[in-house]
């Protein structure tokens, strides 16, 4: 048997937390042979909900669940953390100005980044789910100078999975037939779901679906899928978001395996200047994972349409970075 891996989840009393905790505890993240020690971080208003989730976790008697601890202090919650899932955030509410949104999140992700820096395990890997996810990840990273910068990532796996699912539906084929879909840029309405390298059973997707659909309504539908879920379900994406966070983390730690051969996924990782994305921005790319590290899939042809869409989303990321810099939230 292995020593437990410590997983800290922030926003554990919230909806995504509730959907994620039971799957993680059941072994969906690291398999049935790897015990997990859960640390739940909440703010005082979320404490009772987190405590309730912990009671239900106990009632599941999961053999893979080594322990559950709840804290409202980041220094306690991140102590020894191997994985940090940063779900709790201050998302945009109606009428909120961008500066207010970024400042509210700076007050959350700055101190959490600092606590990760000071307390987490040497191998800590951070996945930011709470919006604005890419920029929150950047804020946390900039407060953790002792942690390798590439350990901070943001979730675009839900966008990726939505993009795969909607392509499969249009092509009338199971999702298992699809590969080579990419989400580029920001986890926001400017994201670019790119089918120019996608294949369906090995054939170019753009030979199977209408190219004008792929470059118009498809992009819009993927980018607006969260709003569509709210409209239909009467609430935001929860189980699919928790699933995506688990898949991102699982692939990062355990590797993308044989899917690497022309089959990649999407994650927001720190740019080293790939595809003209300014170094240092945390942007979504086509990625594979091996040995606990993400690698950007390099050498893909970027046509004029893709170039324009990638540049537009990356420009938004750069503007968010500039804004948090001006607010003094990052150096
Ligand atoms: P929720 O409101 O149900 O839960 C958020 C929880 O975070 C609350 O319990 C709150 O008390 C807690 N929280 C707030 N500040 C905190 C802090 N400083 N430390 C610890 N906990 C804190 O929201 P839900 O539905 O669980 O969504 C969480 C976030 O995930 C939102 O920002 C949402 O926009 C984002 N999201 C991101 C997706 C992605 O693909 N990247 C997809 C879906 C949601």
From TrEMBL:
Q: In the Enzyme Commission scheme, what number(s) does this protein have?
A: 1.1.1.37
Q: Which UniProt keywords apply?
A: NAD, Oxidoreductase, Tricarboxylic acid cycle
Start and end of every Lactate/malate dehydrogenase C-terminal domain?
156-325
Mind telling me which InterPro entries this protein's record contains? Answer: L-lactate/malate_DH, Lactate/malate_DH_C, Lactate/malate_DH_N, Lactate_DH/Glyco_Ohase_4_C, Malate_DH_AS, Malate_DH_type2, NAD(P)-bd_dom_sf
Q: What class of enzyme is it?
A: oxidoreductase
Q: Which residues form a coiled coil?
A: none
Its biological function? Catalyzes the reversible oxidation of malate to oxaloacetate.
> What is the designated name of this protein?
Malate dehydrogenase
Q: Which organism is it from?
A: Leucobacter manosquensis
């Amino acid at each position: 048997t292995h020593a437990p891996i410590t997983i800290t989840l922030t926003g554990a009393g919230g909806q995504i937390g509730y959907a994620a905790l039971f799957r993680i505890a059941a072994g969906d993240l690291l398999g049935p042979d790897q015990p997990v020690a859960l640390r739940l971080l909440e703010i005082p208003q979320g404490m009772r909900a987190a405590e309730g989730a912990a009671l239900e976790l106990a009632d599941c008697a999961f053999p893979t669940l080594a322990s559950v601890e709840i804290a409202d202090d980041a220094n306690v919650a991140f102590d020894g953390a191997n994985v940090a899932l940063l779900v709790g955030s201050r998302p945009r509410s109606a009428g909120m100005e961008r500066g207010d949104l970024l400042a509210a999140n700076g007050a959350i992700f700055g101190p959490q980044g600092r606590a990760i820096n000071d307390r987490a395990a040497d191998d800590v890997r951070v996945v930011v789910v709470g919006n604005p996810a890419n920029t929150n990840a950047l804020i946390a990273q900039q407060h953790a100078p002792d942690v390798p910068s590439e350990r901070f990532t943001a979730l675009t796996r839900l966008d990726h999975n939505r993009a795969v699912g909607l392509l499969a539906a249009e092509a009338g084929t199971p999702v298992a037939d699809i590969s080579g879909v990419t989400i580029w840029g920001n986890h926001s309405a400017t994201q670019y779901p790119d089918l120019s390298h996608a294949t369906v059973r090995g054939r170019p997707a753009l030979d199977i679906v209408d190219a004008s659909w792929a470059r118009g309504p498809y992009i819009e539908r993927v980018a607006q899928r969260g709003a569509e879920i709210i409209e239909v379900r009467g609430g935001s994406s929860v189980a699919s978001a928790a699933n995506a966070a688990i898949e991102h983390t699982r692939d990062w730690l355990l590797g993308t395996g044989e899917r690497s051969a022309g089959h990649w996924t999407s994650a927001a990782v720190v740019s080293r200047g790939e595809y003209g994305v300014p170094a240092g921005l945390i942007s979504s790319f086509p990625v594979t994972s091996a040995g606990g590290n993400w690698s950007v899939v390099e050498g893909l042809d970027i046509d004029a349409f893709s170039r324009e869409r990638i540049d537009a989303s990356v420009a938004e990321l750069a503007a968010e970075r500039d804004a948090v810099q001006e607010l003094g939230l990052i150096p």
